[in-house]
Amino acid sequence: xxxxxxxxxxxxxxxxxxxxxxxxxxxxxxxxxxxxxxxxxxxxxxxxxxxxxxxxxxxxxxxxxxxxxxxxxxxxxxxxxxxxxxxxxxxxxxxxxxxxxxxxxxxxxxxxxxxxxxxxxxxxxxxxxxxxxxxxxxxxxxxxxxxxxxxxxxxx
Length: 156
Known about the structure:
This protein is an alpha+beta fold. About 20% of the residues lie in helices and about 25% in strands.
């Protein structure tokens, strides 16, 4: 039996096709409709969160305390699944380009109630202890696991 294989290389794509894709999966391009125009990444490389370890000031306990103290849990009505918030931290420790994705427990796209999303996004934007790295910007993720209308876990 003869098995054939097909191999794609960058030579198989036009320059226009290549330029329409981000350099890394998950890169966040600026969107003037939703992003703060005052947020500017530094003119350095943007690292993915898995390329290094960034530690929030006070580490994960500080993040958990922030949400425990400030979250109005009454807004989590009949919610189950994951809400992930991904954002960029620039070389000054400032944050921007927030993107939110909801998923059910089977990792299928899920639309969550807007008050839930707005509150989690607002509280995430108020976290101000991300470290600054002089030579680069980086992406950060926070994922909320919601079970029976309660935040069961915060993953960073």
